[in-house]
Amino acid sequence: MSIDFDKVMGTHSEALKLRSERTKILAANIANENTPGFQARDMDFSAAMREERDGAATGLSLDSDGGDALYRVPYHPTQDGNTVEIGVEQAAFAQNANDFQTSLTFLNMQIKGLAKAIAGQ
To answer: Residue 20: inside a domain, yes or no?
Structure first.
């Protein structure tokens, strides 16, 4: 009898991949806070998860030409054209890190449960 790990792990493994990609996008935004003309980007996590779940995902393209990343509209535009607002980016980064940790915790619980089942406990 084989174990289908995709069913056992649920959506959390896909969520970790997407959260990791979002971390890269948000980190790039924070790193370019003072770059004139830099356009802050983000991704629609819910839409990306739906695509993953439906099997329609083609993978995120994080090239400089855009890909699946969306541009963020600033609350307070600057004269140099940079749309990074450090408070917004830090809050999004912290929330994303918290969500990443939550998915990781669920995966760890699933793996521990599998280990107990295999050990016959």
So the answer is: yes
Q: What is the pLDDT of residue 25?
A: 96
pLDDT digits (tens, 9 = 90+) for 50-74: 888 887 545 554 444 445 789 988 9
| Six token digits for residue 121 | 């406990």
The SS3 of residue 21 is helix
Residues spanned by the domain of 57: 11-119
The pLDDT score that the predictor gives to residue 53 is 81
What is the number of structural domains in the chain?
1
92 contacts 27 by C-beta, under 8 angstroms: no
Residue 2 lies in a domain: no
User: Distance between CA 114 and CA 108 in Å, rounded?
Assistant: 10
CB 9 within 8 A of CB 114: no
21 within domain boundaries? yes
